[in-house]
Amino acid sequence: MSYSDEQLELKSIQLRKSALRWIKHAGAGHTGGSLSCLDILNVLYNRILNVRPETFSSQDRDRYVQSKGHAVEALFAVLADAGFFEEKELETLCCYKSHYVGHPTRKVHGVEQNTGGLGHGLPICVGVALAGKMDQKNYRVFTLLGDGELAEGSNWEAAMAASHYGLDNLTAIIDCNTLQIAGRTKDVMNSEPLVEKWEAFGWAVRRIDGHSISELTEALKAPLEPGKPSMVIANTIKGKGVDFMEDVGKWHHGVPNDEEYERAMAGFDAMLAEKEGALS
Amino acid sequence: MYSSEAEAVAKGLGLKLGKANLQVFAATVESLASDDKQVVAVVSDSRGSGKLGPFGEAYPKQLVEVGIAEQNLVGIAAGLASAGKKVFAVSPSCFLTARSLEQIKNDVAYSDNPVTLVGISSGVSYGALGTTHHSLHDFAVLRAINNLHVVCPADNYEAEAAVRAAAALDKPVFLRFGKAPLFDLGKEKEQPFEFGKARVLREGDQLAFVATGEAVIHAYLAAEALKKESGLEARVISMHSLKPFDSDAVVAAARECGAVITVEEHMVNGGLGEACSSAILEAGASSCLFKRVAIPDEYTVTGSQADIFHHYGISMEGLVAAANEMLVKI
């Protein structure tokens, strides 16, 4: 089905609730980064990607590889919502013998590649995009990177190769929440100026508000420029949607206690009520 | 790579000097590519050292150059394989298996992308170029990775068979090739190549050499020299597959021969010798004599591959001496 911007905004809140619910249930997870990237995943899976559970094995499908694998709770929430599996299966998240591990694995329907170690998604996607060009297929390839992840040199090896081969079927998105586990990305290892760097590597670059459904849609709906790979730098807020988590580094992989959880969920419910009221 | 005495023994046996396994690999991939447009070679500025120049000229659309970027090489190879390509990722083994180890572990083996990783100029093939260019850790690190075959062919027959078997397997495989021309060890009709199945190249029940890769010919020549010198019958086993591992062949050798010498162009830690010793111990066959001939835990001496082999006893002469020293104890 097609959603309006307002409906997707509503869905983002529901997906954030889902991600936080399962992090709390599992007692483990990456809260801040999952909440920061959820609007991006929401737009990808509900507007952009030609990927459906029933056609997931098709060689013509679009591919999404989550390079920042630690935000797996966001991915699982979106995949469950898209019908790849029943959400109740996440009751086993991180449990003994569960396929729902704390990073993406292909044992979960809808996951393209096993990720978790950083700096892997972009090289893999260069390979998939190259194969698409070789086979003259029309699928597009997407990956999501963290801004802290860009310190891994493998990203820059892949950045060179993507422009060398003119992979305009490849779009990378940076979930640029400016925080990593040890602190501000600019203090730990400054990855800015991102626009200039990626342009210098031969990419078409656009910097947007990563929480704006309309800006995400506009940036992702088609390659930014023929003959060049696309880089969408999405400015986001770590812990987005929970007032006491927003832009606070300790929530990188913090799990809320009972009181914090109730407070966060109440906040989401208030947002939902407001949105639903506006929509009705 | 052979002393004049060793060459004389080989010629006396009628063994024919073939090509380097690396050349056989390149020719085989070219043959596969002519039949199947999905066959792709990915190189990291290594088409020359991988002997893939002619392949690139014949099939330019089936060669992907990534530049000097081994992590990217393996990641791209994984992506290509996931999209249906039959991928050979080719790079000097020293870089491929050290610099890209996490990509091999995660992108290829863990994600089950059927890439054939091809480590070229392996072991001490680069000789005097030194430790940065030696690959003496690859068995150890790759044996520790799940869902990856680790294979080191001993001659041209095993090399071609291994490349074809890897292309047909649809699973992750690591193939290790050296640069030296190798004698043809024969016996292929009796014992066709199969992953995980050792090839007994010479029968014998008084001693067993269990060897892999370019070290196998030295064990074979040593066995023949021992026969001539003292009438001793030594079994020679080509253990081309480090994973899956043919424990049965090793345990049978230990039980039936009572003395086992392992031979490998690899550091003593984590390689063939350790694989054999654990198989023998677990089978309760540890009453046999046992010795590992390998590169010791030190930076290798300077010299050619032949010099280094000679220095550490991975040579016909060195293995004859090792056998005699061991058998004195019986």
TrEMBL record, chain A:
The keyword Glycoprotein does not apply. InterPro entries: THDP-binding (IPR029061), Transketolase_N (IPR005474). SUPFAM superfamilies: Thiamin diphosphate-binding fold (THDP-binding). It comes from the Bacteria. Residues 16-259 form the Transketolase N-terminal domain. Keywords: Thiamine pyrophosphate. Its cofactor is thiamine diphosphate. Belongs to the transketolase family. This is Transketolase.
TrEMBL record, chain B:
InterPro entries: PDH/Transketolase, THDP-binding, Transketo_C/PFOR_II, Transketolase-like_Pyr-bd, Transketolase_C. It holds the Pfam family Transketolase_C. Keywords: Thiamine pyrophosphate. CDD domains: TPP_PYR_DXS_TK_like. Residues 19-185 form the Transketolase-like pyrimidine-binding domain. The keyword Disulfide bond does not apply. Its cofactor is thiamine diphosphate. Belongs to the transketolase family. This is Transketolase family protein. It comes from Pelagicoccus albus.
